[in-house]
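debug: dumping io for the single-chain case to check the tokenizer round-trip. Nothing else runs in this session.
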Amino acid sequence: MKQVKIALAIAALMSAAGVQAQSLAKTDQAMLKQLAQANIAEIEAGRIALDKSQNTEVKAFAQQMIDDHSKGLREVMTVAQSKGVVLPTEPDAKHKAMGKKLQRLSGDAFDREYAAQAGISDHKATHAYVQKVQSEAKDADVKALAAKLEPTVAKHLGHVETLSASLDGVSPRTAGTPPPVGTSANAADTMGATAAPGNTGSGRAASPDASASGKTYGKRQPKADKTSGNTDHPDNPANKDVHPPVKY
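debug: decoded output
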């Protein structure tokens, strides 16, 4: 008799859960399941990375994924239970295949693949999805859940993009950053080989009349005029009495 009562109680709970699930739109139910799946995938990939990677930064990121996504999964489960939605308990086929691929890799190849797939690719997809849930979910609790998860996913994405660049050996300097002060954009400018007019490339402004050899920097002085009154010029008639021509 006691067993019958227990069975009836369980049936009543299941029936109540079923009524709650039916009250939640099917799209919202699917959203909860997908959010759970995203967290499960990151937890499983993080466990693989902790086991296989020898890179301290990769292992630290993997541990953060396990911790943060375990918390995220618990939050999804809390909402799902209140709505009577049954969630998945293991990775989907896509992420099982990814896990098998990661298991076959090792060393730097593993680290790069883990960062690219479980890191960048999955977090981009999850970030876009939580934004979609925020805007399209009908249930207020489901919307609030997505809004709560979004900042953590965005933070993970920024972290793993930096990590992936480091693993690929990409310089942290971003494209378009101007060169340091005092340096030139090309070697020709630095050496002054093709300096523009008025710029020798050495930091000293040259006169427009500077010679090609670079030895003359001042202006050329005009030649003395024979009839200018310059009493020092030997060809000026006024100089004949002062400087008589030398006879040989």
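debug: round-trip ok. The CA atoms of residues 119 and 160 lie 6 Å apart.
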